[in-house]
Write a structure and sequence with these properties.
single chain; alpha+beta; Beta-Lactamase; 44% helix; 21% strand
Length: 632
């Protein structure tokens, strides 16, 4: 216990205060026995028992304070460690799909297998792809002898590589993922690589390598999660891969928490699988909290007003804490009864020796009441702060996951619009629908967050689709389609309003679209139907605090529900809630205790901030809020 008390000095001070009062009660009882046992033996026997009960209460109070404070700290740390590793895992899952898609690009296969594509053309093509995804700082195309035929980053001088990842990729039927020091990017200490073989006519002709900006990504994650008291790090079994200040590695532990020699509370978390992807093998995240060890300044003066403070909110506290409160109230009442009975004895028997003893008991009663109420108030505050933190962080996490996820959707649509086959076929008078369909299907199987992908011509007519081919022949007249067909900038994407669509079983979703441009002329477009119902609800479920009861919603500024994991609140319904929860600006969040549908909740609302250039520098304005309701 002493180790924990050193981490929470205010609890240590509480224990000292309670012990002091318990000693005073024993002293007064002893004094009373010496001077007035002959007239009030039963009275002092009762105070003896009260002192014993109070001693038990002191232990229970201190243990409860320690337990709740440790729970609060470890819950916050677990949330942050889990968020760090899971957000990274979701991001890297997208990279595994990217390398699978890009390795089939026909410009790349033509570059390796023919002389039709110049280095300049190939470099421009890579640059086009990289400009859609700011998460890569290098793209390299190798031949089967590990010669670098071209690489994107002009500062990375590369002729060939001896890295085994190339041969591993050539032998594999899927991607290869490694975080290593590599001669592929020798100026970096370590590089996170995604490699996949490139094939032509069923023969291996090369390897594509994508280099992910891990440090850049982790800096963004830590910035969003860490406060001044916390250290968060990404670790493997031997070293710190990235952190906001942690230098020494830690071993993964299944224990709820550890306390290191520096007085940090430490937790570690492994990644949860996402879409079947487990993350990089052996990676985990740790979060550490340095408690405030500043000594507590106390005063001997009793605050009479505080003694009359409002009663604690019992709904916030569990049964164990409520039993402690009841025991504390019983002790105060017992001492009050002793004083009343003592006064009656003194009055009837005219024994004035009891007067100073009773006065001391009154002082003890007041001090005890104050100390106990302070302790209970502290418990309530800790529980309340922990709940509010859980609710706020849940909203922050869900909205961050949404922004990151939809960033990928905006990029996917523009990436796929660059597909050479689409440009070639849409430029022809007669289309090879079977080839176009097969390509869309291949892409859709790599990227499982879409229910359908479709291509449309310059008239807005759908010419083929990956899964739901019943939409072929439909003429699209939506505003986002018109903007797509009038656009020639490959950096732009367009999004439908969040509304019911016949392309999504008449449920509400977003459809992202991008222009297919060839020789400065728009020749059609690609549309991608996001699986909003499944994906958004999964985000909410993954973000909600597992130890609590309640629900989460995504809503727009007009209070329309975008997604809900509460079966009683339908998507597209309008939420009856105060305007202040929908009028947030910047990075602000709002939380409060509210009554909603005749239930008491803590509610936290957070507005989307965007991710990288998505919603920050791309002129797409679509504020979404996440509202988390935790039942009290």
């Amino acid at each position: 216990m002493s180790e924990l008390l050193d981490i929470f000095p205010f609890i240590k001070q509480t224990m000292i205060d309670l012990e002091k009062q318990n000693k005073f009660l024993n002293k007064v009882t002893l004094t009373g026995k010496i001077n007035a046992l002959h007239v009030a033996a039963n009275l002092f026997e009762f105070t003896d028992k009260t002192a014993i009960v109070f001693d038990e209460l002191k232990v229970e109070l201190i243990n409860a304070l320690l337990k709740e404070n440790i729970n609060k700290v470890t819950n916050e740390l677990n949330f942050k460690a889990k968020t760090a590793i899971d957000i990274l895992t979701r991001n890297l899952f997208e990279r595994t799909a990217d390398v699978g898609f890009f390795s089939t690009d026909s410009v790349i296969t033509d570059f390796l297998s023919t002389d039709a594509i110049t280095k300049e053309q190939m470099h421009n093509h890579l640059k086009e792809y990289a400009s859609k995804y700011s998460v890569y700082n290098e793209i390299v195309i190798f031949d089967t002898n590990a010669n670098a035929r071209i690489n994107l980053n002009s500062e990375n001088i590369l002729v060939s590589s001896k890295d085994s990842i190339i041969q591993e990729a050539l032998k594999s039927d899927t991607y290869v993922e490694k975080y290593i020091h590599t001669d592929i990017f020798k100026t970096q200490e370590r590089t996170l690589l995604y490699a996949q073989k490139i094939m032509h006519n069923k023969q291996n002709i090369g390897v594509l390598c994508l280099c992910f900006k891990l440090d850049d990504e982790m800096h963004s994650i830590f910035k969003n999660l860490a406060t001044n008291k916390e250290k968060i790090a990404l670790l493997d079994k031997t070293s710190v891969l990235a952190s906001n200040g942690l230098k020494k590695p830690l071993k993964y532990s299944d224990k709820p928490y550890q306390i290191n020699k520096q007085g940090f509370v430490v937790v570690t978390q492994k990644a949860s699988a996402y879409q079947g992807y487990q993350g990089v093998d052996g990676w985990f995240a740790t979060a550490m909290h340095k408690a405030d060890t500043t000594p507590i300044q106390t005063t001997e003066q009793v605050d009479e007003d505080e003694v009359q403070a409002e009663e604690p909110n019992l709904k916030l506290l569990n049964d164990e804490l409520n039993q402690i409160i009841q025991k504390a109230n019983d002790i105060i009442e017992d001492i009050a009864d002793v004083i009343i009975n003592g006064e009656l004895i003194a009055s009837k028997q005219k024994v004035y020796v009891l007067t100073p003893i009773l006065d001391n008991l009154r002082n003890i009663s007041t001090e005890l009441l104050l100390s106990i109420k302070r302790s209970i108030k502290n418990l309530e505050d800790v529980v309340k702060e922990g709940l509010v933190h859980d609710v706020k962080m849940a909203s922050h996490l869900a909205i961050d996951i949404m922004d990151r996820n939809l960033y990928e959707r905006a990029n996917d649509s523009r990436w796929w619009a660059l597909t050479p086959l689409f440009k070639t076929e849409l430029s022809k008078a007669e289309l090879d629908i079977q080839v176009l369909h097969k390509t869309l299907l291949y892409i859709n199987e790599l990227y499982t967050v879409y229910t359908n992908l479709f291509l449309f011509d310059t008239h807005g007519k759908i010419i083929t689709a990956s899964h739901d081919t019943s939409i072929v022949g439909t003429i699209l007249e939506d505003e986002y389609i018109k903007k797509t067909l009038s656009n020639k900038d490959s950096q732009k994407y367009f999004v439908s309003p969040f509304e019911e669509s016949s392309f999504y079983k008449n449920e509400a979703t977003y459809i992202y679209a991008a222009s297919i441009v060839e020789n400065g002329k728009t020749i059609g477009g690609i549309g991608v139907v996001f699986d909003a119902t499944i994906e958004f609800e999964a985000m909410l479920n993954d973000s909600f605090p597992s130890s609590q009861k309640g629900f989460m919603l995504f809503c727009d500024r007009d209070k329309k529900v975008i997604s809900s994991n509460n079966s009683e609140i339908a998507v597209s319904s309008i939420l009856e809630l105060e305007d202040r929860f929908f009028q947030l600006q910047g990075k602000h969040s709002i939380s409060d205790f509210i009554l909603f549908q005749e239930e008491e909740y803590i509610l936290a609302s957070v507005v989307s901030q965007g991710y990288r250039e998505y919603k920050t520098r791309d002129n797409y304005n679509n504020d979404i809020l996440c509202l988390t309701f935790v039942r009290i």
